[in-house]
Design brief:
Length: 498
């Protein structure tokens, strides 16, 4: 390493001439390359492919581009470039040849999150609130942002939610606080961040193919609590998150704040007689609680599914730690709606409800979605990412009326249903035509459904085997439902199931 990096902890430090390789040409990679070029660094962007628009933009901003093939993942020009540091996009797992080459040459590895933390003072040194977990990250990030926005703070939800943190840092308007959604990939490459508050919502098997083991996945998630200054929010129903807090090196005085659907203890958020309560941020917390909202009110807003209530409690804890009042939280919830493809009711016709939860991309999310209904025709399947599916299948047999399997990794699901429910009607969709997958799945589900049933798209798997992303999968599901049911469908598609 030919440059000292310890002093590069400000936008206003001297970044000129620093040689940086950015691995990945997606949204995150380009954001990092653009930032570094603005700082005056010498930047080489390396990727397996890059679209024409980004390639042209790199040329304009003075960033070199190098395509690394599978045959030569570490090209000779990259080696000759001799980078001082490599910025790794989340799509590059630790076993990738480019990452392993950097480690073998003692080239420091940063993610875009660490870079953003170092240059966070371009406009104003905003606080960071970090959100991670296997499921519920985006909803909790959006909720927290809405609550603090209602309090009058200038808030930027960013990170894995779709807006790179570096873009928020460079916004000329400036912010008081960033609500940063972090994936396990981003946390793996992050260090040195000192968040105001942090939460890991839950932990279940996911992305085992990327991390190599559940232990490595959990270790990455646990980094969210490192150096937290004020509030470490954890899930009382998930002991792994409590262990993370107990083992974290935090700033002296940081508090552990629990949330859960049961009655809260002092320093907790929870539910008592249908009332969501704060027993953490009030002086007399041993004898009193503050009311935030009610389950009945949330039901009227389509926000009363148990996993959504849990997200609301977690977000409330984060927002209260930063100064939001109970009244701010109540007002924010009254205007809040879930993203599309998250427990979204597409139609309710002839006693059958059709629900799009395409965002349930792992078994833990699908488990929460299935629990919200008592009689389900389940559309499931996709890229399982190395996770085990048997427990999920066995847990929900009593509520399943039938199953429609999509995706290219069908055999594991077919075998699981064969072992646990050989009498259950199971239909596997045999087509590689993306435009036809949901058409055939909806037809198969309609044949299995009866009045009182829910047809639920909760794939428990990633989508990239047959679709561009979970949103693409959800859109095609919606289109197929509307086409199959015809004019009977309620085309508002803005409702959420209670």
């Amino acid at each position: 390493m030919s440059r000292e990096l310890e002093g590069l902890t400000s936008w206003h430090a001297d970044w000129s001439g620093l040689r940086v390789v950015v691995a990945g040409a997606g949204v995150t990679g380009f954001s990092a390359a653009d930032t570094l070029a603005e700082l005056g660094a010498d930047v080489l962007l390396v990727a397996e492919s890059i679209d024409d628009v980004r390639a042209s933009m790199c040329d304009v901003i003075g960033v070199g581009v190098l395509v690394a093939t599978k045959e030569e993942p570490v090209p000779a020009p990259l080696i000759a470039f001799a980078p001082d540091v490599m910025i790794v996009s989340p799509g590059y797992p630790p076993r990738h040849p480019l990452v392993q080459w950097a480690q073998s040459t003692d080239t420091p590895l940063w993610g875009d999150i660490e870079l953003a933390w170092r240059v966070r003072d371009k406009v104003a040194r905003a606080d960071w609130i970090l959100v991670t977990g296997t499921n519920g990250k985006t909803t909790t990030t959006q909720l927290t942002a809405a609550m603090l926005n209602e309090s009058g703070f200038r808030v930027a939800p960013c990170g894995n939610i779709g807006i790179p943190v570096l873009d928020a840092v460079r916004d000329p308007e400036g912010f008081d606080v960033y609500i940063v959604e972090l994936s396990s990939f981003q946390l793996h490459y992050a260090s040195g961040i000192e968040p105001y508050a942090s939460v890991c919502l839950n932990i279940a098997d996911d992305h085992i193919d990327w991390h190599g083991s559940h232990a490595a996945y959990e270790q990455a998630k646990a980094k969210v609590y490192a150096h937290t200054r004020v509030a470490c929010v954890y899930n009382r129903a998930d002991q792994a998150t409590l262990r993370m807090v107990e083992n974290a090196e935090v700033v002296e005085g940081a508090r552990a704040i629990g949330f859960g659907l049961d009655s809260p203890g002092p320093s907790d958020f929870g539910v008592v007689d249908g009332i969501l309560c704060d027993r953490a941020f009030l002086e007399d917390r041993r004898d009193r609680a503050l009311e935030l909202t009610t389950v009945e009110e949330l039901a009227s807003l389509g926000l009363s599914a148990p996993h959504i209530v849990a997200d609301i409690l977690a977000a409330s804890a984060l927002a209260r730690s930063y100064g939001a009042t109970p009244e701010d939280i109540s007002r924010a919830l009254s205007g809040f709606s879930l993203d599309h493809h998250r427990s979204e009711t597409i139609a309710s016709v002839n006693g059958v409800s059709w629900i799009d939860d395409s965002k349930a991309t792992n078994p833990h999310a699908a488990d929460a979605s299935l629990r919200a209904s008592s009689s389900v025709v389940w559309i499931v399947g996709g890229l399982l990412k190395g996770v085990e599916i048997d427990n999920l299948v066995a847990r929900h047999l009593s509520r399943l009326k039938g199953v429609v399997i999509i995706g290219r990794e069908k055999q594991a699901l077919v075998d699981a249903f064969g072992r646990h429910a050989p009498q259950l009607p199971v239909r596997a969709i045999e087509t590689d035509d993306t435009s036809q997958v949901m058409v055939l799945a909806v037809r198969a589900a309609r044949a299995l459904a009866a009045p009182g049933d829910v047809v639920l798209l909760a794939p428990a798997a990633a989508s990239m085997d047959q679709f561009s992303d979970y949103a693409h999968r959800g859109r095609l599901f919606r289109e197929a439902v509307i086409a199959e049911i015809g004019g009977e469908a309620d085309d508002t598609s803005a409702s959420r199931r209670p």
